[in-house]
Amino acid sequence: MRRKPVPPAPDSLDRLWDAHRAVPLIPGSEDDCCGRVAERLDVTPDEGRDWLVFCQSLGLAREVSRGFERVRGDRQKEELRTAFVEHVFGAQEVLDALGDDPRSADDVFEAFEPTVPNWERHRDPEGWESRWRDRVARLLDWAVLFGVAAQKDGGYVAVDA
What CATH class does 90-158 carry? Predict the structure, then answer.
């Protein structure tokens, strides 16, 4: 399953590990977990939910019958990279839009735009494009952080991982 929430990419993976540690070891309800993540990261509850689901996408948290729990153990950057590409909606498509020549985030969005679900366009006809441009920019920043893309000459390029 590929999930959509993508929090803003931090400067380092330390913030991701902070989010991971904020997910309880003993399952708690979704609201409790989101609140805990939000409090620990000093973000809004909605942003806490995005971090929780993003951690789930990366295999750092899992949903169980009683709520969410932290997945124990360290993940290597390669494992996170693979999970990002396979389980975060749009990550593979953004990477597919990259090549050896630098592309701006706007250029990547133009290539990505056909994959935006129709229901997203109809749900908010006036605002979907700016939301998805932001999502593409976040995906690019995470791709750089995970080492599957790089910033070069004011744009983004693919990196052989």
Answer: mainly alpha
22 Cβ contact list (under 8 Å, min separation 6): 36, 37, 39, 40, 41, 51
Which CATH architecture group holds 1-88?
Orthogonal Bundle (1.10)
For residue 91, give both structure tokens. Answer: 């990550």
pLDDT tens-digit profile of 12-39? 999 999 999 999 999 888 899 999 999 9
Residue 121 to residues 4, 38, 105: CA-CA distances in angstroms? Answer: 15, 29, 20
Going by C-beta distance under 8 Å and a sequence separation of 6 or more, which residues neighbour residue 77? 13, 146, 147
Of 12, 119, 96, 2, the residue nearest 58 (C-alpha): 2
58-62 contact pairs (CB < 8 A, 24+): 58/16, 58/83, 58/84, 58/87, 58/88, 59/83, 59/87, 60/16, 60/19, 60/20, 60/23, 61/20, 61/23, 61/33
Q: Which residues make up the CATH 1.10.10 domain(s) of the chain?
A: 1-88, 90-158
- CB of 1 closer than 8 Å to CB of 86: no
